[in-house]
Design goal:
mainly alpha, 2 domains
Amino acid sequence: MNIISIKTFVSIITIYLIIIWITIIVWVIKDINNRITSIILKTIIILTTIVFWPLWALFYLLIRPATTFSEKYSKEIEWNIDYLTSEILKRLSEKERRKIKEESTSEIKKIKTKHLQKKKKSK
């Protein structure tokens, strides 16, 4: 029965920690590019991650911006659609609003019936 020498064990652990270190650095670089535009702030965060990676990686998770650029953009689009819809509805007459509501309700019913028919056919 061969027992792994201490030197081999330390080498394996060292390689494992280096892989984790590189992985964390790559992840921080990708993540920070999706959240911050300032090159100076990006550089500081990346350098700090390289030097103090075990603790800084956990701290970075706490201080990073909550949303990415694409999430902010999506929320802005949703807000604009809601705002425009409400403005359009305000300007419509009551008769036109009822007509739109009836049309959308009938469309939803059509979609539901098609979905149910597809479910029945798949069984």
